[in-house]
Specification:
- There is one protein chain.
- The protein is mostly helical and about 260 residues long.
- The protein has one domain.
- It has 15 helices and no strands.
- The radius of gyration is 20 Å and the shape is globular.
Length: about 260
């Protein structure tokens, strides 16, 4: 079932890989060199004049002029995670809730495989598919950054890219779990979308608001960006939280689907 799922999703996987690669070429290979030529406009002193809410929204924006600052603020803070999350949501939605809505899931569950093993294998396919996209785009990111003259080591880009992968896998697993519990892709997408937007807002513009700042502990973005991997390397503890949460949600998906009537 793992290979069947990957084969069925090969087109979106290839499409997302190509699209994200183009994203890196444009934002790192084209946009950054023009910024590097005019550092005074994008220095820390210039960025300090930006509205505080805007700096918070960009994850505590510091500067665009340095390579780590640009990658952190423009690429890895918001845009790339958002794209990867949408990718994961699409893949997860097509794997379980999609077939149920189209009426083909009834045939799948009659195969000589338990419901629990079915969901486990769909989760494995999701993890492997996202890993393939992440691995290829990691190489593209490093190659484009190197060609653009960015003084950022491969280990730091690997650390940031690993965080994006784990973050997307977590939200993809939430999509899988909600789809397993409800059988509705729209419900799963809305749930994940709301959690992603609110979770990001809590750890950015809401971090200085006492009434909501405590919610950062339930936001995946807190564990993704708090360690600042482009500056400090792998935040192992935070990444373990993301991986552990994805595992727990995968188990939730298994139990939810095993106990629900899907019409067979």
């Amino acid at each position: 079932m793992i290979f069947k799922s990957l084969r069925d999703q090969r087109r979106p996987l290839i499409g997302w890989t190509l699209g994200l690669s183009v994203f890196f070429v444009l934002y790192v290979g084209v946009v950054y060199p023009s910024i590097a030529e005019d550092p005074a406009t994008y220095s820390a002193q210039a960025v300090a004049k930006y509205p505080g809410a805007l700096r918070d929204l960009m994850g505590g924006l510091q500067d665009f002029a340095t390579a780590p600052g640009y990658l952190q603020s423009v690429v890895y803070q918001l845009l790339l995670p958002a794209l990867f999350i949408v990718c994961a949501m699409g893949l997860a939605g097509r794997s379980l809730a999609g077939p149920e809505e189209s009426g083909t899931l009834e045939l799948i569950v009659t195969l000589p495989i338990t419901r629990r093993m079915l969901v486990v294998q769909l989760f494995a396919a999701l993890a492997l598919g996202l890993l393939a996209v992440a691995a290829v785009t990691l190489l593209v990111a490093w190659a484009v950054a190197w060609s653009a003259g960015m003084d950022v080591g491969f280990d730091r880009i690997l650390a940031a890219h690993t965080g994006v992968y784990l973050l997307a896998l977590l939200f993809g697993t939430v999509t899988l779990a909600v789809g397993a519990a409800t059988g509705r892709r729209a419900v799963a997408t809305a749930t994940v979308g709301a959690w992603a937007v609110l979770g990001y807002m809590v750890v950015t513009v809401g971090k200085n608001v006492d009434a909501v700042s405590w919610l950062r502990w339930v936001s995946p973005f807190h564990y993704y960006a708090e360690g600042r991997p482009l500056y400090q390397g792998f935040p192992a503890g935070d990444y373990l939280v993301l991986a552990g949460a994805a595992a727990v949600l995968a188990l939730t998906a298994v139990l939810a689907f095993d106990r629900r009537d899907v019409g067979v």
